[in-house]
Amino acid sequence: MLSSYLAHLAVERGLAANTLACYRRDLRRYVDHLSARGLASMGQVAESDVVAFLASLREGDEEHPALVASSAARAVSAVRGLHRFALREGAAGHDPAHEVRPPRQLRRLPKAITVEEVERLIAASGPDDAPLTLRNRALLEVLYGTGARISEAVGLSVDDVTRAGPSDDSFSGGEVRLRGKGGRARIVPLGRFARSALDAYLVRARPFIAAHGRGTHALFLNARGGRLTRQGAWEVLQSAAERAGLSGVSPHMLRHSFATHLLDGGADVRVVQELLGHASVTTTQVYTLVTVDRLREVYAAAHPRAQR
């Protein structure tokens, strides 16, 4: 049943490889949990068995550390999906996980860096216009300029970028097609800074770097001419952050900064939802809490009767 469900997630649901790997790991642990309780089939599982698994996730054991609420919630989501699948496929007569709810998670506000810090970060791409420096600058501009996840950025191909012509005097600098979770694609505009950085990279750097490889359509290349990996992109960001004197900067923080700065500038939350590729606007609305804090700061500093 487990292998059938994982195949269903991969083929019919189109789950990303990283998500699928997490589900596989969580569900194998669940199957081991059931086996230890003497349960050999989905039809034998009771709600108490699922609840006990959730408790074991939070408590940990000799082989597994205790999981935080977010990781435990992901595991419970995988288990609930497995039992729904078993019921639908006739492998069980009931769904014992239907009423089991994942642990409540503390709502953590996304962290963002300021516009000035973003500018320092991108300026620290490198000391010159060497090919890899141009690549690094283009990568950072795309991450911040489009709100792309790091996996989406390194997954880009050259054909995914549409650049406006050199005589285009409008704000738009072209578009980029990003492929997000579940294989969902979205089109995100490229601003002038990202377009300029990509132009410099594509014309003056990528052909030189590509000559070291065997030929690939990947947009961002490593020094050997192959597709830049997530780890490679992470190292680019960390090196630039260190030179800029910034700590704790991650690719996801640039994504958070993209959303926060848009909302601070007056963008509608549903527009930001589309740009980020969120399936639900409730996921995006967490950023509105950040901007409310910003509004309070501005009000307290600017309104003549705000001080107490």
Automatic annotation (TrEMBL):
Residues 1-87 form the Core-binding (CB) domain. CDD domains: INT_XerDC_C. Forms a cyclic heterotetrameric complex composed of two molecules of XerC and two molecules of XerD. One of its GO terms (biological process) is cell division. Pfam families: Phage_int_SAM_1, Phage_integrase. Residues 108-300 form the Tyr recombinase domain. Keywords: Cell cycle, Cell division, Chromosome partition, Cytoplasm, DNA integration, DNA recombination, DNA-binding. Site-specific tyrosine recombinase, which acts by catalyzing the cutting and rejoining of the recombining DNA molecules. The XerC-XerD complex is essential to convert dimers of the bacterial chromosome into monomers to permit their segregation at cell division. It also contributes to the segregational stability of plasmids. The active site is at R149, K181, H252, R255, H278, Y287. InterPro entries: CB, DNA_brk_join_enz, Integrase-like_cat_sf, Integrase_catalytic, Integrase_recombinase_N, Integrase_SAM-like_N, Recomb_XerD, Tyrosine_recombinase_XerC/XerD. It is found in: Cytoplasm. It comes from Acrocarpospora corrugata. Belongs to the 'phage' integrase family. XerD subfamily. The keyword Cell cycle applies. PANTHER family: PHAGE INTEGRASE-RELATED (PTHR30349), TYROSINE RECOMBINASE XERC (PTHR30349:SF81). This is Tyrosine recombinase XerD. GO terms for molecular function: DNA binding; tyrosine-based site-specific recombinase activity. One of its GO terms (cellular component) is cytoplasm.
